[in-house]
């Protein structure tokens, strides 16, 4: 066999330096993080995220299938009807549980779902939750195989759909939380300055793009209900215990002079099932009684002033 030579560009790392191989934000150990507190002198902010997604029967699956996409050959009615259960039943059940506990949520909505599920959007708004943009659809996944014009069109189409609906969200979450190298500057260009795709810290991180700064408010995939209950097949009580344990740990880690964010997801067709609601209610009650600040993504971002964020730090 002959030897295979790597192209020279595979050996060149333009961002090779202390920290990570990117120029969006600087690397630092936790001990060097600027300290601060949340409103009411609280150390923990709890950000609950409840996505509103529209799943189609025949997704293209490019460049990969969304984690909630259809699984079996056409027509996959079993998974399709389960996904439809979410915005039809499960989401309203979760909204009631959040209201009973006195907690807020961030509700990312696919642009294509705004009119389809308008009563659900109105119900979330009426209860004081934040409506965020969740890209165009579960089958419009952002990736570096798209041209800049193609991806800009996806972001623009999403923004236009919200404008037609009379909504101007500042928070963005990509479908499947997948990005290309261009996604951040493109969403900043479209007026989104808060993003839920990144989770590199336990506090928001200011990420600098050519189109402006985007605050990455951390959302933990490791506590995602679909990941733990469906993919890892944990019990509902184990999942609820993990969320409450994370809240207690982060609150203790913040101490008396620092702060943390606990962000996790409630998926309507997963957490909104009737046999899971006792665990959901126990979890929400524990969070409400734990002295944390129940906040939306944009509220957390608004709370950060220039002296508390990373935007003035060196990106060395």
From TrEMBL:
Organism: Brevundimonas aurifodinae
Family affiliation: Belongs to the polysaccharide deacetylase family.
Name the record gives this protein: Chitooligosaccharide deacetylase
InterPro entries attached to this UniProt entry: Glyco_hydro/deAcase_b/a-brl, NODB_dom
Domain annotation NodB homology: ranges: 77-316
A Pfam family per the record: Polysacc_deac_1
Biological role: Is involved in generating a small heat-stable compound (Nod), an acylated oligomer of N-acetylglucosamine, that stimulates mitosis in various plant protoplasts.
